């Protein structure tokens, strides 16, 4: 391990290449998480519902289904994806974006997620260098990418990701990695309660739900990682981007006003920006205010 670190220190290009490739491999795994985790949750919810509300009905045990089993297959012909067909980006290019058996098109989003994860991982490595912060920031980045695409697909921010992310942020900041322990604790509390308060104020005023509880937990996690001072930046950026995208969708796609849109992706994007440029944004704001 020490020798590997020495090589990375001596030849930074090797370090950056390693992190980029690792990121693309993780991106391939994130594709599995994005697709399967919501299915796993829905299966468990249905099973629990039937077990509780239909006690007289014989409820069959859930068939084994998780992130590792069964093996990935083509959704049309059930061809099992081999290791050679699962190399990030390269396999998609080699197969020309089609199943090797039935030639059904493979969504371009799979390699796009792999490339995006690789590029984001490279940026993390470049920004933080060969430090412990890089390792933790990579976990932070990968988690937010998974949450972003799950929320886009299912309007869902799974507790299986948001809650471990929250606790990990609090734990690493006991060593003041990204924020002081006090700032991290206050960040988690204020992050959750700020959106919780807005949720109830909106619901009591309009009778409608403006957002989900997953958004509260995600903002709490961002506060735990980046500290309470990062929250204004995150909230303002996410609200601005969310409003811009929502209005754009209404104009371009002629969506009806009031149709729900996921807020998690905008929180995630704002959290990523705050990790890298939050202090700079705050400084520029105060420079502008103070003249």
Summarize this structure as a short list of keywords or feature phrases.
291 residues, mainly alpha, 10 helices, globular
Q: What is the secondary structure topology, with strand pairs?
A:
Elements: H1 2-10, H2 12-53, H3 90-94, H4 109-128, H5 132-154, H6 159-172, H7 181-206, H8 213-226, H9 231-252, H10 264-290
Helix pairs in contact: 1-2, 2-4, 2-5, 4-5, 5-6, 5-10, 6-8, 7-8, 8-10, 9-10
Give an overview of the whole structure.
With 291 residues, the protein is mainly α. Helices cover 69% and strands 0% of the residues. The protein contains ten helices and no strands. It has helices at 2-10, 12-53, 90-94, 109-128, 132-154, 159-172, 181-206, 213-226, 231-252, 264-290. Helix 5 packs antiparallel against helix 6 and helix 9 (231-252) packs across helix 10. The radius of gyration is 21 Å and the shape is globular.
Residue share in β-strands: under 5%
Count of extended strands? 0
Dominant shape: globular
What's the N-to-C terminus distance?
A: 50 Å
Low-confidence stretches: none
| Biggest sheet architecture | none
């Amino acid at each position: 391990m020490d020798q590997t670190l020495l090589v990375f220190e001596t030849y930074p290009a090797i370090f950056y290449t390693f992190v980029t490739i690792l990121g693309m491999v993780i991106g391939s795994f994130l594709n599995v998480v994005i697709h399967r985790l919501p299915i796993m949750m829905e299966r468990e919810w249905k099973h629990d519902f039937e077990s509780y509300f239909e006690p007289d009905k014989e409820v069959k045990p859930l068939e084994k289904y998780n992130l590792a089993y069964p093996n990935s297959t083509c959704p049309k012909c059930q061809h099992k994806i081999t290791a050679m067909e699962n190399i990030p980006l390269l396999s998609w290019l080699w197969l020309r974006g089609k199943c090797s058996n039935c030639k059904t098109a493979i969504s371009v989003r799979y390699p796009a997620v792999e490339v995006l994860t690789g590029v984001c991982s490279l940026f993390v490595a470049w920004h933080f260098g060969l430090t412990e912060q890089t390792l933790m920031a990579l976990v932070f980045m990968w988690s937010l990418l998974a949450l972003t695409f799950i929320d886009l697909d299912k309007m869902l921010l799974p507790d299986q990701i948001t809650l471990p992310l929250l606790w990990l942020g609090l734990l690493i900041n006991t060593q003041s990695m990204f924020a002081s322990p006090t700032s991290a604790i206050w960040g988690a509390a204020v992050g959750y309660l700020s959106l919780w308060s807005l949720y109830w104020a909106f619901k009591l005023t309009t009778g409608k739900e403006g957002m989900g509880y997953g958004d509260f937990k995600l903002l709490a996690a961002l506060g735990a990682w980046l500290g309470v001072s990062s929250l204004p930046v995150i909230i303002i950026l996410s609200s601005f981007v969310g409003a811009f995208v929502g209005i754009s969708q209404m104009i371009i796609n002629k969506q009806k006003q009031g149709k729900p849109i996921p807020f998690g992706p905008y929180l995630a994007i704002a959290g990523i920006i705050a990790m890298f440029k939050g202090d700079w944004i705050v400084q520029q704001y105060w420079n502008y205010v103070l003249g």
